[in-house]
Amino acid sequence: MSQKTLCIATRNQHKTQEIASVLAAYWVVKCSADYPEMEQLEDIEETGDSFQANATIKAIATSQIVPDYVLADDSGLECDALDGAPGVFSARYGGIPSSAEKNNAKLLQELARVGAMTPEQRGARFRCVLVLAKGGEVLATFDGACEGKIILEPRGLHGFGYDPLFVPRTYTRTFAQLTEKTKTSLSHRGLALKKFIEWCQANPLE
Asked: From the candidates 74, 80, 83, 143, which is the catalytic residue?
């Protein structure tokens, strides 16, 4: 698969770096901030009620402006005890302006509020949907999920977002305590990106 340029529809440098670490062998990876023409586009409102809906909104809007292929990601955390919350509100769960610290504090408060204090009650998963688009047209969609649980207090210094609270199934360390390589091999985004790479290998792009 020859290298082409792929725009990740985000200004989140953590997310871009995580994706680039997986795709660098196949693509020249950029993000929305690397395209001056994106300055004309106001912040894309993620008004969908699912990760796929939001990823599609971002992919279409960005690919109508950026000349390269666009890959949009929407992802988040789903907690069983909270009926799937924070879900599509994961990035701003703790309020605006958002921060990982506020989001994590709100999550722990909500789990305590509903009495979910044992590991069995704190089942959760990270879920990711990727949408590939070009010229305002969706070409393909990919998804991935990583099952685990939420611990009682943050552990670890790596990663971002809810990583210090999430322990993947069969592990004892949080995403924030694992190496980037190990996390990527397990993560929702890593699994979705694997499907994306396999699709690209089977469907060479012009």
From this structure: 74
